[in-house]
Amino acid sequence: MSKIFVDACKGKKTPYTPVWMMRQAGRYLPEYMEVRSKAGDFLSLCKDPQKACEVSLQPVDIVGVDAAIMFSDILVVPMEMGMELKFVKGEGPIFPNPITCMEDIEKLDVQKAANELEYVYETIRLIRSKLADDKALIGFCGAPWTLATYMIEGQGTKTYAKVKKLIYSNPKLMHALLSKVTEALKLYMANQIKSGADVVMIFDSWAAALEQSAYFEFSWNYIKELTSFLKSNFPDTPIIAFPKGISGYLDKIDGDFDVFGVDWSTPMELAKEKLGDRYILQGNMEPTRLYDKNAIDEGIDKVVKVMKNERHIFNLGHGILPDVPVENAKYFIKSVQAKTKNL
Asked: Closest by alpha carbon to 280, among 10, 66, 6, 18?
């Protein structure tokens, strides 16, 4: 059976514009919170394929999105490469012993990570077995730069001082880490596809931290390496690239992927002008519009006006926020599907 989301990723005509939301399996859903409380903590939920499958399917069943995205976290990769990872309430993810030298990088185990992430692959197999045939399943990873930033900073950062100091003072060390992370991601993403992911997405959440020349050297080139590897081995699997906050660099974007995720700070008109002839575009409604139904309608109409008769996948320009009413999320999905029907 044809999957509308996969068809859209491949540029085929669809009866309406498919729609899903980043972070759609999450805290805005009471059903998610119930499963998470049973799991005990966030990492335990990630490592439990049955529960991770359940929360992955909730947005499909409850909200009506056109694709499920597997429930996991981008940081399970460095964790399974050998780094200790903690999720601290109020602070988020923390690596207590961040990367500081080449010896730390040499301790990271690429093959171990690929093997130890079996719980992710089992989650994908479970989701695929229970997901309707016409619904797509999205696998994902963090971009090498975003993962390496966490691994060096040890936690979220506003200044990126440690990692940016490294790219200018010791670029050789930085490239050694990025290369190793990229190798781990190649195996990880290949296993996701083999397990049943219909589409894979690469999140470069901290792309905007770097000036243009540094971004292409330390981030985009590694994304390109990853996507080229995946395309050469899985040519029929669409790839979505989502570098957040690089609207000023769109002229330089190229690579072997299918869909470009547009964040909410990038005008859709600009993305269409710079990239619309080469890639399907995904995005990019401002997530906080979901707090108000009139704002939702206005946001949808704005994007539809730009992307009417163009290749497009509807999404928010970043993740749905935890206190958005479920009713509004449902309204958003149904409104997109109705407003884009037979465009």
From this structure: 10
Give me the active site residues, please: 23, 27, 36, 73, 150
Tokens of 274: 């710079």
User: What is the span of the domain harbouring residue 45?
Assistant: 4-339
Tokens representing 234?
A: 């899985």
Q: For residue 2, what are the CA distances in angstroms to 64, 135, 198, 316? A: 17, 9, 12, 24
Report phi then psi at 138, rounded to 5.
-100, 125
Report d(CA 92, CA 251) in Å as an integer: 34
CATH code for the domain in which residue 250 is found: 3.20.20.210
Structural domains counted in the chain = 1
pLDDT confidence of residue 342: 79
Rounded to an integer, what distance in angstroms lies between the CA atom of residue 65 and that of residue 21?
8
Q: What is the pLDDT of residue 89?
A: 80
Extended beta strands in 66-135, E state: 67-69, 86-88, 92-94
- Paired with 200 in beta bridges are 139, 239
Rounded to two decimals, the pTM is 0.97
DSSP secondary structure string for all residues of 136-192 = EEEEEEE-HHHHHHHHHHSB--SS-HHHHHHHHH-HHHHHHHHHHHHHHHHHHHHHH
Residues 341 and 14: their CA atoms lie apart, in Å, by 9
Average pLDDT over residues 19-43: 96
Q: Kindly report the number of other CB atoms within 10 A of residue 175's CB atom.
A: 16
86-119: pLDDT as tens digits: 998 878 899 999 999 999 999 999 999 999 999 9
Model confidence band, residue 257 (pLDDT cutoffs 50, 70, 90): very high
Report in angstroms the alpha-carbon separations of 333 from 6, 67, 287, 327: 17, 11, 13, 10
